[in-house]
Fold each of these.
Amino acid sequence: MNRIRTVPHTHPVMQGVRAFCWAMGIAGIAATTAWTATDRLPHRSAPTHLEAPAGATERTLAAVAYGECRSCSPRGRRWVMHTIRNRLEDGRWGRTLEAVAWQDAQYSALNPTDPNLRKAAQAAISEGDPLFLTILDEARDVMGEPDPTGGATHYYATSIRPPYWARALTRIATVSGHVFLREEG
């Protein structure tokens, strides 16, 4: 059961969530993801469609990669971004890239309590972070290039014990400190 916690609007978590949405140009996500005027953390009940302005798709990919794997190689970041694109193409995770990325507990960098959410939002807002700008260029490439991952829809860091859900998936490769997997059938 998902819980919604009330957090003051001045709380750093809420500032990070708001800043991220503002930076991505997807302020309308608030209504779609069950945020309320009382400043509750998002319930994120798996929205299937989010309207995003032009350029938001690449910015969302870049922000997720920045939050999830900014210290990885360019190849590793592209593979992470391809998992989002592969989920979009599969269709079970949402009809837009933004909906896929914001699925509850799928990409930890977008979880409201993850410190990487705030870092990604700040990088996206400043437009002065050279690494974010590099990742943004990579995200634009990912949207138009063939999938190098063999259909990977999941990954986890090699620094952690394999998650329980990894047992049911087929391992594809280890790239830049992440194990990439896909579902069969």
Amino acid sequence: MKLRRRLVLLGMAVVVLAAGVIGGLYAYHALTPPTEYCRLVFGPESQTSVLLKLYRWKLYVYRSGSLEEAGVRLDPNHEGRFLFDVTEPDGTQHEVRVLRSATIELDGSRLDYFSVDVKVKRRFWEYDIIPPSTDPSEAEASHFNGPLLLQSRTKEWIRDRSKEIVAVIGSGVEREKLRPAVVDCERDFPKDMHPVAELEFPSRDSTQPPIKVTAELKERC
């Protein structure tokens, strides 16, 4: 009788232990995010491509741009950021900081993204937020150290009314799955360097050429 009771208790302990292990595995996999990818592109001709893979809170950097070659595994620092350098074929070097983050929007939806800061040529900063992808072939890319172009944030232009021009300096031209990074004019950017906007307005007289105006943008916000 005592032996049977011991066997019953042992069987119950095994069941409880198995249930705990299964429950722990389920919770672990439920809390473990899926593997995520994004891509960083560098250079005036987009000649350097770096693929990033986030797997179980580790960042893998594929400097060849392909998963076929071995990547470098990075652990986050005390701020949760991953730090590494990128060197272009001509020797141009950049410091890169990556943070995986999320924001709750006003409508309650969740916005997930990679926050990427790059110290271009180790001189000034460019940044972007990149939506993660679970498919490396579909990963969105951000262009750093590309041609600097003014991008207007002013949407409406009304004739005969003064208008404040709001613009950002973007790196590169937006194309499919390739987004221009934004120059951070507040961090290490020369204070005496100001972009010049070239504006073109149609003439009231359709027989006359358009009116062209230039404006130096000196205020930063």
